[in-house]
């Protein structure tokens, strides 16, 4: 397999939207997100992303096939649910760069793509200028959740190596529909931050 990684911005973001939606539905179906995705939800969710000033999508291709994608934008351009915890904690939102989802098909994991996703997003933030903090969030699930696989390994060590650490009290609450649910429920998401 020949993997290439490329950062896409501006109008070109529209060209990868169907693949980003497909990957989000496919990858986030697994633990710990358990996302029961739909094209309608994706269309609405991703519309805001492609309209965000300063947005970037880093894509991984195997030949011509997109097998992974990672998004980011200035925090001020994202959803209020992600902005509010930072505002309440006294952060200057204009100085926070938000790394959104990273979705990668399982067969391509463990080959350095995750590092490239972070490298490209952080480089984009530095090119834009003015950002002091890079952040992302991950869903918080109970350890005894019935759908948690015994083989699951959290990515904490990987994120720590990248210089990120969880910030106590920086918790977002965001709704989506889990597998097996009939409607959306709100989930807590813990923010991790790194100085840029």
Could you please describe the fold and organization of this structure?
The protein has helices at residues 13-27, 39-51, 80-88, 113-128, 156-161, and strands at residues 3-9, 56-62, 65-74, 96-104, 133-139, 165-176, 185-195. It is an alpha+beta fold and 196 residues long. The chain has a single domain (3-195), classed as 3-Layer(aba) Sandwich (Aminopeptidase), CATH 3.40.630. Helix 1 packs across helix 2 (39-51). The chain starts with a strand and ends with a strand. The relative contact order is 0.17. The model has no long low-confidence stretch (mean pLDDT 94).
* Average residue pLDDT: 94
Look at the structure and give the CATH class.
Answer: Alpha Beta
What is the annotated CATH architecture? 3-Layer(aba) Sandwich
- Helix and strand succession? EHHEEHEHEHEE
Give the strand order, joined by hyphens, for the main sheet: 1-2-3-4-5-7-6
Q: How much strand content do the residues show?
A: 25-35%
Helix content: 25-40%
Q: Count the helices. How many?
A: 5
Q: N- to C-terminal separation?
A: 33 Å
Class derived from helix and strand content: alpha+beta
Radius of gyration: 16 Å
**CATH fold-level label:** Aminopeptidase
- Count of beta strands: 7
Per CATH, the superfamily is Gcn5-related N-acetyltransferase (GNAT)
The shape, in one word, is: globular
């Amino acid at each position: 397999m020949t993997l290439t990684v490329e950062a896409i911005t501006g109008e070109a973001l529209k060209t990868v939207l169907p693949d980003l939606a497909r990957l989000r539905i496919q990858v986030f179906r697994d633990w710990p997100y358990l996302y029961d995705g739909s094209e309608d939800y994706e269309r609405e969710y991703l519309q805001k992303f492609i309209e965000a000033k300063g947005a970037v999508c880093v894509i991984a291709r195997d030949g011509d096939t997109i097998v992974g994608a990672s998004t980011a934008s200035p925090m001020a351009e994202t959803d209020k649910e992600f902005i509010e915890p930072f505002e309440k904690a006294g952060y200057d939102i204009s100085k926070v760069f938000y790394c959104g989802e990273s979705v990668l098909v399982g067969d391509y994991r463990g080959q350095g793509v995750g590092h490239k996703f972070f490298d490209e997003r952080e480089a984009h933030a530095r090119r834009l200028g003015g950002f002091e903090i890079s952040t992302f969030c991950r869903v918080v699930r109970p350890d005894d959740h019935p759908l948690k696989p015994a083989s699951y390994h959290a990515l904490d060590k990987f994120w720590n190596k990248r210089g990120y650490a969880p910030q106590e009290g920086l918790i977002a609450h965001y709704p989506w529909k889990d597998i097996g649910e009939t409607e959306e429920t709100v989930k807590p998401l813990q923010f991790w931050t790194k100085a840029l």
